Amino acid sequence: MLHDVRDALRLIRLRPASSAAIALTLALAIGANSSLFTIVNAGLLAPLPVRDPDSLVNVYTSGPDGSGYVGLSYPDYLDLRDANLGLDGILGYGGLMATLTGEGDSEVVFGELVTANYFDVLGVAPALGRGFLLEEGEQRGAHAVVVIGDRFWRRRFHADPAVVGKTLSLNGRSYTIVGVSPAGFGGLLFRALSADLWIPVSMMGALRTDHLDNRGERWMFVKGRLARGARPEEAAAAGRLAASRLERAYPETNRGRTFRVLPTADVLVFPDGDRALVGGTAAVMLAASLLLVVACANIAGIMLARGLARRREMAIRLAIGARRRDIVRQLLVESAVLSLLGGAGGLLLARWVAAALASWRPELPVPLSLNTAVDLRVTIFTFGITVIALALFAVAPALRISRTPAAGSMSGATAARRRWIAGKDVVLVPQLALAVLLIGSAALLVRSLSRASAVDPGFDLDRTAFVALNLGMSGYDDGRARGFYEGLAGALEKRGAIGAATSRLPLDIYGNQSATVTPDTGSAERTVQIAQVERSYFEAMGIPLLRGRAFDRAEFAPGAPPVAIVSAETARRYWPGVDPIGRQLRVGDQAASAVVIGVAADVKVQTLGESPQPLVYEPLTSGYTRLLRLVVRTPGDPAPVVGELRRLVRSLDPAVAVFEARTMTDNLSVMLYPYRLSAALGSTFGAIALVLAGIGLYGMLSCGVGERLRELAIRLALGAPAAAIVRTSVAQTAIPVGLGVGVGVVMALGAGQLLSAVLFGISPFDPLALAGTAGILLLVIAAAGATPVRRALRVEPAAILRE
To answer: Which long-range contacts (CB under 8 A, 24 or more apart) does 748-754 make?
Structure first.
């Protein structure tokens, strides 16, 4: 074996070009697979950095119909904690958002409200200080303590080891830091979310959001740790008994509900959404795997070409007594050395690509972080696909080379050469087919992105920006908060801009609001989208009013009769063929019906691909302490206004933190991110596959021309025209090329059907995508064949025949 390794290294040194091509091709394909697996592993698969993660279970409640997975209310959690479920501890947690004031600018921080036993049940020991004491989670509002995250500690306190005992001002109240979480632990909400801090759930009221006593408010996620020897099924059975007791005790809120227990390791993000997530992830990994197959087919062609060059050597080895298995072993060792070089390069490439992919994320006001360091799982995965690649590209060529007929190879018989060339033809077919599949899929994804980017959202993108604030977290009451927004809008007006507050923006992932409405036509109530807006909202957003008028100042006064502006789709659904102005509809449980005073043009409310949705606008008369957006229409480029908005907020009150601020164009890019990501990945895979296919086709034609130089020389000497030489040079590859492209087109059409769920505004058989794929293929085929054909035409018969 050592002798074979030395031979392999010597042969790699003697053939540096082809060896480098093999190693680089493998590194590219393995790096693509490993980098994607690194992202998937970090975001979905990696076990939680806690003690014995396999013994953790998630506890949910079902809906009233017995389906779905929902969180628990805090009273339900307390009852479940006291029940005997076969758990060695049960913890609860939920999302937290607060305004941090103090040194430097105010900022919004994110974290978790947790039960006091959170760190104890998880087995997470703080790097500094301690976790929470049991009494700190029981006495409402009595213990203002906080554990901060490692990243937050390094960013805000510059990794000060004496941070324990210092204070943070959150929502106007001082909290004492009692601990710092260990590096790598970012909480339980989502693996990619790196929590800034943890606060005992008993302090929820101090944060101005208190659902602790509401049994119907199911905001809390719950995890438990199985006792030694216990099984999730046993805990689930005990949970059903506990749910029955709660249903009898609290029929108003718990009727038809039960507790459902799932192993934490079986849940990626959330049970109801995991299936779609798995499907999308599998599609991306499948594309990367196909790229690996294309690369291996390319390498197999190179290995066959190298074998053709070594056929005399192999014949001599066989003639002097080498066994066939000795030949196979030597060739496999050579391939294994090349595979290990490619795998090592792929691992290095994966680390860089994974970090780049993790950094290319939508601009969201939450602390996202993915650990893309190469861990044991990634290393094992990379080694595994390296072995698979070795099997794909090395075994068949090694077996074929070992069957070299000794006499024929040493005599230079043409039959032997033809068998070698036929073997390379077989390799070319799947290579081209998979390349066409990846290129066609990439063309569809790029076309989908183009169509999504061209959608008219129904409002002005070019001159609008917004700032999102939550004044309730800064201690404002409703009247004072309303004055703040009026002062901010007045300052903007002096600068030539128009500002208006709203409870939501179109295509805003944080502002989904809906309510049931009952029109005066007597039809059944329906659910529509709702937005509360200020008087200048339609002018600020650039949404035209098709009929009627906008809100006036009197309609925002206390006790004013309710009025509403409806979207065009709302008018079409509720009052078809009738003027909706003056008609009435009752929103939610309001006592009085609102009079319709205007009809606004339809806008994209939740997604770019949606059909027109019914939307009802109401005057924003209260609720100024919640999360609102102030939308701003500028006379010019809105980008500079984003910084100005932050400065204006800071000048009015330095204690108010900006939740987010950006242009509406940038906000739309968040909605386009899935399309951009899929198009970028698809284009990358398609481009790599295209290059590999071109290289493979070039190698095939070059090898064919090289093997037929004597024949071509004789043809030229006998007066064959250039067209005949070209036809002879490419005829041998015409059949495998045609077959590979044909099979690839069929596969691409099938893939289009599978991609239809993620395509936007185009058919899986989009003619432009198909035409683009065909054009690109023709260019690559022409480019790959140009040099070999030119070489064939430049053959000098006298020189070749003299040799």
So the answer is: 748/436, 748/437, 748/439, 748/440, 748/441, 748/773, 749/440, 751/437, 751/440, 751/441, 752/440, 752/441, 752/444, 754/283
